[in-house]
Amino acid sequence: MLRKLLSLLSDSATYGASGLIGQLLSFLLLGVYSNYLSVPEYGVIGMLAIVTLLFGPLANLGMTNAIFRRYSMTKDPETRAAVLSTGLVSVLACSGMLLLVTLAAAEPIARVVVGDPDSTNLVRITLFSAAIGTIATVPRVVLRAARRVRIVALLNIAQILLTAGPTLWFVVV
Predict the structure, then answer these.
(1) Of 98, 25, 33, 109, whose CA–CA distance to 61 is shortest?
(2) What per-residue confidence (pLDDT) applies to 28?
(3) pLDDT over 70 for what percent of the chain?
(4) What is the largest CA-CA distance in the chain?
(5) How many CB atoms lie within 10 A of CB 130?
(6) How many whole angstroms separate alpha carbon 42 and alpha carbon 165?
(7) Is the pLDDT of residue 165 over 90?
(8) 1 has a pLDDT exceeding 80
(9) How far is CA 155 from CA 101, 113, 140, 149, in A?
(10) Measured between alpha carbons, how far is 71 from 119 in angstroms, rounded to an integer?
(11) Are 67 and 83 in contact (CB under 8 A)?
(12) Ordered alpha helix ranges (H), 37-148
């Protein structure tokens, strides 16, 4: 029992550390944003972040939670492969359909969310990014269910670093 508790604490600490690194980087980027962006431009970034936050749950429809549960409940490799493939196809299909619909409505979304139809291309980039992020959650969920804590933490850190580079480039350049 104590061994399981210590294992859980270790896993929590690893996940927490990778999340803390992301929050720290976001905090450090705040200084860059405040130097290079005006208040309205920073507001646009905030509103586009809301678009991303709304896209994910609508696109995966709780499928990642279902994958985690079913994958954890079975030990049979064939069943686990079926859970993964079914979940991945489902998330791909839902994300693809939602992406098509939202891309077709990018200008009205830009008008309503950002308040500027000239931001349509930014909305499109945000939607593509949100779709990729939603699809990428499926392999991560399987890794979490398989208790590959360090791999998930490394993937989280890699994602943070890979998104920080283009973000800095877009803001500064």
Answers:
(1) 98
(2) 86
(3) 100
(4) 59
(5) 24
(6) 18
(7) no
(8) no
(9) 30, 31, 8, 10
(10) 41
(11) yes
(12) 39-60, 63-73, 77-104, 106-109, 120-145
Which pair of tokens denotes residue 139? Answer: 């392999």
* SS3 category, 27: helix
Q: How far apart are CA 156 and CA 173, in angstroms?
A: 26
Give CA–CA dist 108/157, Å, rounded.
34
Question: Comparing C-alpha atoms, which of 55, 65, 74 is closest to residue 138?
Answer: 65
Residue 116 to residue 56: CA distance in whole angstroms:
23
**Could you read off the pLDDT of 116-152 as tens digits, one per residue?**
888 999 999 999 999 999 998 888 888 888 888 888 8
pLDDT at 99 over 90: yes
Cα separation, 90 vs 111, in Å, equals 30
